[in-house]
Design goal:
330 residues; 2 domains; four-stranded antiparallel beta sheet; 8 helices; Immunoglobulin-like; TIM Barrel; globular; alpha/beta; six-stranded parallel beta sheet
Length: 330
């Protein structure tokens, strides 16, 4: 086996990160028929009660994004809340609780779901009312398709169709985007920047910091299985890992198995870091090589078709978490 290591210039970075923010993602509320995307009411109430403690600072996603982009220091334990798809249960179950707590939230809307007048989703009158009450509206494509499998022209059509509907229905085009299924590729990063989106969010675990890819920001996805209060507390208190110069740059994997590598702002963390990669067949065995602040990971087999996730954690005086999702079309 031949190993190729990529060593990059690291002199421009400081000793550690300045900002961290944990963003949580929900889909459905108190709809046990859909356990993979649902959060039970008792779980959600536990989450909101935890975030009501004074040690947390629940902020809007716009505040978090603008602070990161403009290098403005955020308070400790900054938390963001997001909801994908505009399921009706957001209005009926979650929003009254969030509103009572005074917690800002971003609702990522799939315009095609709303335009089809499905009884399972909100309608535009309800979305306009939510916006008036303080809910931020984000974009989540038009058809909720697997964007990484589409051509550039097809993706442009998705974005432009969605943008026209937003402009007609709420008099503005959102500045925040969330990828359906958390799937994306490098051409999407550039395209969303061209369409003037500030940032885009995936569905992979991890904590946002100033070295994060603005067009592939992490969120902790919460459902019945992964919504227990201890995991929630762990994520809410975690900090960014300060990962930069990550390869592969394209999360839509072409060369399989991929060469994976990254550098750490704080070199002292390198010796203590643990990384785990899972695909549909379970954990992928690997070799990890450490060169000062540089970490190189070599997989012992190819990744399976579909989504796979890399998570790296380390503890200094607190837990730090970096994650990314890969996707393989074939």
């Amino acid at each position: 086996m031949i190993f190729i290591f990529i060593i990059l210039n690291t002199n421009i970075y400081a000793a550690n990160i300045k900002n961290s923010a944990t963003v949580f993602m929900y889909h459905k509320f108190d709809k046990p028929k859909y356990p993979s995307t649902n959060i039970r009411l008792e779980q959600f109430l536990q989450h909101m009660e935890e975030l009501s403690q004074t040690k947390y600072n629940v902020k809007s996603l716009e505040y978090i994004v603008d602070s990161i982009i403009n290098d403005i220091e955020m308070p400790n334990n900054t938390i963001g809340i997001s909801v994908d798809d505009a399921d009706r249960s957001f209005l009926e179950v979650a929003w009254p609780i969030l509103k009572e707590k005074g917690f800002p939230v971003t609702l990522f809307v799939t315009t095609g779901y709303i335009s089809n007048n499905s009884k399972n989703y909100l309608n535009w009158d309800e979305i306009r009312q939510l916006k008036k009450e303080g809910v931020t509206i984000g974009a989540h494509s038009h058809l909720h398709a697997h964007l990484s499998t589409m051509s550039l022209d097809e993706i442009k059509s998705e974005i432009e169709t969605s943008n026209k509907i937003f402009l007609n229905e709420i008099n503005e085009i959102p500045s925040l985007f969330a990828y359906p299924f958390g799937e994306t590729d490098e051409k999407m990063f550039n395209l969303l920047e061209d369409y003037k989106y500030k940032v885009a969010f995936g569905q992979h675990s991890g904590v946002i910091n100033e070295t994060s890819n603005y067009y592939y920001l992490p969120r902790f996805s919460l459902n019945e299985k992964y919504g227990d209060i201890e995991r929630f507390k762990f994520a809410a208190n975690a900090k960014g890992l300060g990962v930069y110069d990550f390869v592969p740059k394209n999360p839509n994997i072409i060369e399989n198995p991929p060469f994976i590598g990254f550098s750490l702002l704080d070199q002292k963390l390198a010796n203590k870091i643990n990384c785990f990669l899972f695909d549909s067949d379970g954990e992928v065995e690997k070799e990890v090589y450490k060169f000062n602040e540089r970490i190189e990971i070599r997989l012992n087999r190819k990744l399976k078709k579909g989504r796979s996730r890399l998570n790296c954690t380390v503890k200094d005086n607190q837990w730090r978490w970096f994650g990314i999702q890969f996707y393989i079309n074939n």
